[in-house]
Amino acid sequence: MEEIYAFILATLLIYNNSLVVLGPTAWGTGLGPRRSYAVAVAGQLLGVATSTMRPIHMGTAEFLYISFLYVAISAAKISLPISVAGYAISSLSPGAAAIWLTSPATSAATYALCRTRSIAKLAAPSLLLVMYMFGYNNVALFNLNPALTAAAVLIGTYLGLGYSRWVVDIAALRPRTAASINLTASLGALLGTLANVPISFTLVAYSSMLVSAYTSNVRIIRARKFVKAYAGILIALLAASIFPYLKSLPLPHL
């Protein structure tokens, strides 16, 4: 069952990323939906195949706990960073928590990138890069069965990319902005990977979008989306902290 658990969580993880990160930036690359989908799938699969991130192993209790959190906070329109939650529950450390809480600082790179005109030429390549880093840093954590992981990539990316325009309230991005956000998210993932810690692509991307909006004087994203993404990190950390206690409680007798 562990492989099925990993498949379900990977699909949800990829769906969320495609919905809130891939979708908005893909439209800014000029590739179109079909080519963006192909690039995103190829990038993620390549990232998973070459990743050195250690997969997370979880039992039924961990799976049900993460699933409950996902459903519960989704009702409040807060996206649970599944990779962060899974990693924190399995091996929470002060260093990992520090990386997650300070990860928005990488958006400082967005300011410089947005002011570089030639960066627009990297819009399409940056999409492949950020999807590669997402596969390497996030999806690989749930790669217990390569065939199921590939299926999760295909399904999650298709659904997330397909619904992003109708679900996500984010302004259309210009090529320069899309490239800047993708490169910033890739940088955040690289820093996390060097520490062997998964990052929240949603949080880094949203913080990057806020900086892009400030640079261009165009509202790209509402600030409350960033606040909710940061709240998702805090909820994941709190949930991971109390999980050992909850797991030790005796089950009620029916």
Automatic annotation (TrEMBL):
Keywords: Membrane, Transmembrane, Transmembrane helix
Transmembrane segments: 6-27, 63-89, 95-114, 135-161, 181-206, 227-246
Protein name: Uncharacterized protein
Originating species: Pyrobaculum neutrophilum (strain DSM 2338 / JCM 9278 / NBRC 100436 / V24Sta)
